[in-house]
């Protein structure tokens, strides 16, 4: 059995680091890990995504459309963009904080967050949607830079990573992250403790 995850966001949000932490956490559990990344637009605020496949039975690092067990999105529009990869009944964990593209401010299509969130709720279903309150996390942690780790923690608590737990992710943080950021990222993982319950109550309003 394998677990397939797509992580996505825009350049600068830490999607690549998040995939490395997840892969390291899975390896710490003795799981086979395969990953693939698209990072060419990372420095321009473009779309960035990673495919991570955990466990036996994953012949390729790429997740097929309709085959992802979970999507972890650091930006709502990117969640919508990658949604075709999610299988029926799969889990979507997303931030509620938009990164509005330059095109929206220069005459392009408007960025309508409410419409995007409604679309995600309708397509995924409230039971399988976890929305992380990015502003609350930033206020508690004092920075938005650890939102990627908050989302990883929320996803782990929702069971999106199969056997990989928050404690496994904490071990990965200690092994991978620069020493000056370890305490922040460990606090970000702890911040995720109440996120899932809050988020699922939120999307039912």
TrEMBL record:
What SUPFAM superfamilies does the entry give?
A: Pyruvate-ferredoxin oxidoreductase, PFOR, domain III (SSF53323)
Keyword set includes Nucleus: no
Put simply, this protein is called Indolepyruvate oxidoreductase subunit beta
Write out the entry's keywords from A to Z. Oxidoreductase
What is the species of this protein? Thermophilibacter provencensis
Q: Which GO terms describe its molecular function?
A: oxidoreductase activity, acting on the aldehyde or oxo group of donors
Decide whether keyword Ribonucleoprotein is in the record.
no
Tell me which Gene3D superfamilies the record gives.
Answer: Pyruvate-ferredoxin oxidoreductase, PFOR, domain III (3.40.920.10)
Where the record annotates domain Pyruvate/ketoisovalerate oxidoreductase catalytic, the positions are 11-192
One Pfam family from the UniProt entry?
A: POR
């Amino acid at each position: 059995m394998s677990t397939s995850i797509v992580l996505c966001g825009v350049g600068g949000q830490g999607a690549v680091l998040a995939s490395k932490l997840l892969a390291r956490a899975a390896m710490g559990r003795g799981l086979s890990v395969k990953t693939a990344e698209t990072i060419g637009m990372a420095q321009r605020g473009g779309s960035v995504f990673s495919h991570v496949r955990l466990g036996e039975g994953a012949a390729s690092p790429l997740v097929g459309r309709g085959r992802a067990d979970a999507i972890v999105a650091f930006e709502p529009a990117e969640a919508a963009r990658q949604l075709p990869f999610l299988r029926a009944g799969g889990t979507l964990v997303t931030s509620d904080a938009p990164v509005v593209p330059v095109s929206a401010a220069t005459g392009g299509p408007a960025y309508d967050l409410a419409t995007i969130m409604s679309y995600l709720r309708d397509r995924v279903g409230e039971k399988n949607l976890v929305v992380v309150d990015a502003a609350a996390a930033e206020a508690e942690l004092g920075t938005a830079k650890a939102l990627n780790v908050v989302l990883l923690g929320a996803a782990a608590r929702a069971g999106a990573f199969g056997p990989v737990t928050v404690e496994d992710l904490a071990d990965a943080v200690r092994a991978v992250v620069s020493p000056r950021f370890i305490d922040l990222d460990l606090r970000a993982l702890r911040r995720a403790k109440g996120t899932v319950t809050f988020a699922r109550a939120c999307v039912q309003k």
